[in-house]
């Protein structure tokens, strides 16, 4: 609900709401009188960010700092929760034997309800307040609570120091063992890898590597020169160095040369004898045998000389003076070449060894650095633990704390309760709340329709018009109402009034419906009596007649007819006479003004439903529709007379009049259901008797401001159907 709707509810239910307000205010006053005085004692604690003692000694200064664990939090809030904790509160209760009204010790929650902790704004001071009906007891509670908190505060700090010392004592042996292990690992690494000073070794290795590379280059240059000489000798001698060495040995062997010369002599003789004799001649055969023997001796001596070396075919065993010299140079050159090659290999091996060592140096340095860091870390940890151990032992004996009592408990000058202003405020607020609740409950139980929106939402029909509430009739001095029937037809009596304008808007909306579909005969009814449907019908007829159309207003309410009162005519004959006595309609219809005729109800019959639900009634309506431009039928309320359904089916549609505050939701829903079941054609809805002050929407406030005094609600309204 909107705020304005609440205000409207209060306006409707002001009397029970006022009674509820008075009742609550009275109850609050009685409670104030019976309330016993409550005293309050206050004490103050001051907190410092760091303890002065710790700051002066330089020991455990960080431990004594009052700092929050989480950013953005107030450490004072944490200390306040410590004061409220169960151990401190229970200790205070037991020490002072605080009891409640039943003679039992106070519970933790009961104590906290009397305790107030306040962090004074802009300071590091905590105010502790306690309330009780015993002033001296209140003071002792605050002093005891502060004392117990300070003891707990110091014990908490000392407990931290004791726990830290025990922890360090447990860690010291492990830290010392870690130092020893790190030293042993570093020593074993140096021994295994023959490391003394890796930096110096790396520098020397680089220098030696450069020298080796230079020497290798020189040896390789000499080796290349020796290779060239060896190749040159080999090309001249057509043999390799080993073969040359073997041939030199054979040429210098006396036995080989003697056997060679003897063999050559026999071969010469054999050649001479062959020239003289045949192959079978004894001389030739003897020489052949001798040659073979000498050849065998030569081969044997050659084999002994070469010592298993392989000779090429047909070697030249007799050399001149130059070849042995060349062979000697060839062999010496080969020996020198082989020596240079071996030297180059040795230098290369040494270089590889140096290079391998150099390649290992970064890894060794990394391992050494890691082991060194581990040793330094272990030594640092051990040193710090020793230092902390001595500091913690000193801190155990210090009274380290951040809180001090700056004000012992004192009792306020006057009791804090009961306070008259508090009870007045409480009573006023409670009274207003109870009054509003009473008004809302009563209004919620009231099922009557109160606003235009509620009526429109409930029925769901087209809103054809909104008619403001009329003024009440004036009264004579002796108390009788002035009988002014013309005052009901304001469209005729007060044509320039805002009320008349509302009726003209209604007939304009109906005329717009007629432009889409033929609407000449309408039935005006309501859900229940006293909703003003007869007044609406009369004024609608007058407004339609003023627009230049010929209008007939028929009073078909044969239970409580009213149209003859509105138009100040005699109801001697009317609709009932035409139906029953077959009277001529022209003789019965009464002419009111230009374009407006009225057919009154006539003599009231015992059974109106039979008359209205007849063929004669249907024929009359057809005749009237042919003669008049517009026919308006005023019928009884829909829920009190069954003939409304019959007349509604004979017409072009029904206009339903609804008045807020008269009809309720139950009757409205029943009417809507019957209209739908009977197949009635409902043209729309007219909301009558609207009090704009009760409407929560700005449109109706605009109408109220526009109409002004013409639509004010009267204190007592004489309502006509």
Output the CATH topology of the largest domain: Rossmann fold
- Count of helical segments? 25
Radius of gyration: 68 Å
CATH architecture of the largest domain: 3-Layer(aba) Sandwich
Explain the overall architecture.
- The protein is an alpha/beta fold.
- The protein has 25 helices and 12 strands.
- The protein folds into 3 domains: 3-166 and 402-420, Bacterial polysaccharide co-polymerase-like; 202-368; 449-711, P-loop containing nucleotide triphosphate hydrolases (Rossmann fold, 3-Layer(aba) Sandwich), CATH 3.40.50.300.
- The chain has helices at residues 3-12, 14-34, 52-57, 75-84, 86-96, 108-114, 135-192, 198-237, 241-252, 254-276, 282-306, 322-396, 420-445, 452-459, 490-493, 498-516, 533-546, 563-566, 575-581, 585-588, 608-612, 615-627, 643-650, 665-677, 698-707, and strands at residues 39-47, 115-119, 125-132, 403-411, 463-468, 521-526, 551-555, 590-593, 596-599, 630-634, 653-658, 682-690.
- A hairpin with a 5-residue loop joins strand 2 (115-119) and strand 3 (125-132).
- Helix 1 (3-12) packs across helix 13, helix 2 (14-34) runs antiparallel to helix 13 and helix 9 crosses helix 12.
- The longest helix is centred in the middle third of the chain and has 75 residues, at 322-396.
- The chain is elongated and about 205 Å long.
- The two termini are 32 Å apart.
- The model is unreliable at 472-487, 698-703 and 708-721 (pLDDT under 50).
